[in-house]
Amino acid sequence: MKNNELFIGLDIGTTKIVAMIGHVNEYGKLKIVGLGKSESLGVHRGVVNNITQTIQSIQAAINEAEKTSGYKIDKVVVGIAGQHIRSLQHSDYITRQNSDHVIEEKDINNVINQVYKLVMLPGEEIIHVLPQEYKVDGQGEIKEPKGMFGGRLEANFHVVVGQVSSIKNIARCVKSSGIDFHGITLEPLASADAVLSIEEKEAGVALIDIGGGTTDLAIFKDGIIRHTSVIPFGGNIITEDIKDGCSIIEKQAELLKVKFGSAWPGENKENEIVSIPGLRGREPKEITLKNLSKVIHARVVEIIEQVYLEIKNYGHEEQKKKLIAGIVLTGGGSQLKHLKQLVEYITGMDTRLGSPNEHLAGNNLIEISNPTYATAVGLVMNARDNFFNNDKELEIKIKRENETDKIDNDDQVNNGDEISKQKSIFEKFTEKLKTFLENAE
User: Which residues pair with 275 in a beta bridge?
Assistant: First the structure.
C-alpha cells in the first residue's frame, strides 16, 4: 500500500459533521492530516430533515478539512446511522444439488441472496446481511464452510434494515456537496473498529456510542457482530431536559452539562451553586449543581436502561453469550462525568471509556484521540481497509492471470469470471447500497 494514498471519512451526526483525512505511515498507523467539523443544522436523530442546511454543513466541514490538510477531497466513506436503522436475526438454508462437490463461494452467496428476498415493512429494505455461523448437514458452529463436503448449507444471519428514503436523502446531500462515495458503512461498526480490540470482540463486548441524537449499540462475541440497535436518545435530550428543568436557553444548558454536569447526584453538595447570567438585563439565575445532576441522572438512567434491555435481549445472561469484556463507552456523550460508574452500577458489567488512539500514529493532534471522533476515525479506517482489500484482490487476480498464461482462452475467461465473483462482504454491502443511490439526485 502506498503511504501517500489518502483515506477520507465523513461522519454526518446530529450535533456535528466531521470530515477527516488520513494516510498510513511507515508503521501501519493512521496519520490524520486534515480535520474539518461544522455544526449539523439539518439532521435530527441521525435523519436528514433539511436538505439545504445539511449540504451547507457538509460543505463547511469538507472545506475546513481541505484547508487544514492542503488536499482536495473528491470521494469519502460515509457513515449511516439514525433511528430508522433496526436489526433482526434470521436463519436460512439451501440444499445443494451435488453434495460430492465441496462448498464454494457461490453456495455461500446463494444463501446470502435468499436473505435479501425477505419481505420487509413498506419503505424499508435490507441494507446489510452479516453471516454469523454456518451449519453443514446439521454440524454447527462452523465459521468458514468453504471447502467442506455437504448437501445442506444453513446459516444464521444478522440482518440490518433501514428506511430507503433516509439513506437516499443522505446520498443526495453528499452528492450535492460535490463529492462521490468511496464506500458506506454502519456507524456503530465504524466506531467499533476504532475503539475495540480483537481480544474484546472475541471475549464478548457491548459498544455503546452516545451521540447527540441517538445512542448506538453494537454487540460482538467470538469476533462476530451479534446485535446492533439504535436508541433514539442521545446527548441532546439531556441538554433539552436541563433547559426545561432550569428554565434557561439551550446554549447555557449545553455549557452547564459539559462544564458542571454529572451523572451521579451524590457527588455534589447542596451549597454548590452556579450562576447563569440573565437575559437582557434580567437578574442572574442560580442553579445548584445537585439539582443539575439530578436532571441529568434521570435521563441518563433511562438511556442506559434501554441499552441494557437490548443487551439482555441479545442473551447476555446466558453463559454461552456472556460478554466477558463488558461495556465500552464512546462518542461525545460518553465524556459526561461519572457516567462510567453509573453504567457499572446499573448493569453490573465492567466498563471502560473507548478512545480511537490505538490505531492512530503517535504524532496526531491530541483532539483526534477524543471519543467524540471515534466514528470518524473508524470511517477513515474503513476507507483504508477497502483500499487494501481491493489492492490485495488485484494482486491475486494478476497472479492468477499469470498462472493461466499457458491455459487456453476459454479457460482464462472462466477463471476471470470466478475471480470477479469473489467479492468481500463489505463490497457486496456497498454495491447493494449504491443501488439505492442511483435515483438519489
Answer: 286
With 0-12 / 13-18 / 19 or more C-beta atoms within 10 angstroms meaning exposed / middle / buried, residue 181 is: middle
| Total structural domains within the chain | 1
Report if residue 373 sits inside a domain: no
What CATH number is associated with residue 241?
3.30.420.40
Contact 407, 57 (CB under 8 A): no
Residue 291 within a domain: yes
Q: Structural domain of residue 246, as residue ranges?
A: 235-299
Residue 260 lies in a domain: yes
What is the per-residue pLDDT across 283-337, written as a single tens digit (0 to 9) for each?
Answer: 888 888 989 999 999 999 999 999 999 999 998 888 889 999 999 999 999 999 9
- DSSP symbols for 319-353: GGG--TT-EEEESGGGGSBTHHHHHHHHH-S-EEE
What is the C-alpha separation between 94 and 107, in angstroms, rounded? 8
Tell me, yes or no, whether 295 lies in a domain.
yes
Q: What is the DSSP string of 32-78?
A: EEEEEEEE--SEETTEES-HHHHHHHHHHHHHHHHHHH-----EEEE
